[in-house]
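Q: Given only this backbone (274 positions), what sequence would you predict?
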């Protein structure tokens, strides 16, 4: 990484209005109370650790590390902040911004995963290359990125409940979205630790699957009927979106569920000849 030699890393005073945020900043959430506390400390003691910036062609500066300090400084009324200017490329700036947050240890698991994902996509890196840049194992990067398979709603629930990354990885074992939400809800309502959560998920998967009656290779057949009902509903919705006035009716007799789907014959013929 083409950084300035240590002796050239002079501290300069930079006007806050000339500092632009880093587009690849992985952190998206900043606690207002923490910023106020930091702003009060800065008002009394000044900025103890300079910000890191790089000079842009416009004469402005892009922030590499220290966004919390910058925001708190503005709240404290500072018009200039001490900075260390670093010579680096766009890619190097993105890596440094991510590294600075990772080293703080308080970056959320999903913020971290999204930061790594942006780095990979923006600069066309492989997982192995990203791992090398960040000083991590390739398997660690892969596990972090897998967390993004959880929906935004699930990620929000996990963060709000203060669940761990191990909780989140356990949920990834469940492919069915409805069943996964049920497991997540139980994790939160029953205040399960990570080991208890993994055991609960193992039981849920066992209850909702049964070995197929074929000899030879053993496969798993999902017996949760909700999955198949959702498939029927999606098929009916797809026909309606295509302009077919499909009508579905479900009756639950207690012993079985009866589904009736009516498709106008003329519309189905038009669809085939279109």
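A: Predicted residues:
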């Amino acid at each position: 990484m083409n950084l300035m030699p240590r002796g050239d890393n002079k501290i300069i005073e930079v006007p806050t209005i000339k500092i632009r945020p880093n587009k690849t900043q992985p952190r998206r959430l900043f606690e207002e109370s923490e910023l106020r506390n930091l702003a009060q400390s800065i008002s009394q003691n000044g900025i103890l650790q300079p910000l890191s910036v790089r000079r842009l062609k416009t004469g402005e500066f892009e922030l590499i590390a220290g966004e919390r300090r910058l925001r708190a400084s503005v709240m404290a009324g500072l018009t200039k902040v001490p900075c260390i200017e670093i010579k680096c490329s766009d890619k190097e700036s993105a890596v440094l911004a991510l590294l600075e947050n990772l080293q703080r240890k308080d970056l959320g698991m999903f913020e971290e995963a999204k930061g790594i994902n942006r780095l990979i996509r923006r600069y066309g890196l492989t997982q192995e290359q990203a791992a090398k840049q960040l000083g991590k194992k390739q398997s660690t990067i892969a596990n972090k990125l897998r967390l993004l398979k959880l929906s935004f709603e699930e990620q929000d629930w996990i963060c709000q409940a203060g669940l761990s990354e191990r909780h989140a990885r356990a949920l990834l074992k469940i492919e069915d979205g409805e069943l996964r939400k049920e497991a997540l809800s139980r994790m939160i309502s029953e205040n399960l630790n990570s080991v208890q959560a993994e055991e609960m998920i193992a039981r849920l998967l066992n209850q909702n699957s049964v070995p197929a009656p074929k000899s030879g290779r053993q496969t798993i057949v999902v017996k949760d009927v909700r999955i198949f009902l959702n498939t029927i509903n999606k098929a009916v919705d797809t026909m309606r979106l295509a302009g077919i006035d499909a009508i579905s009716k479900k009756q639950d007799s207690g012993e079985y569920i009866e589904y009736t789907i009516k498709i106008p014959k003329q519309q189905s013929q038009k669809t085939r000849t279109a």
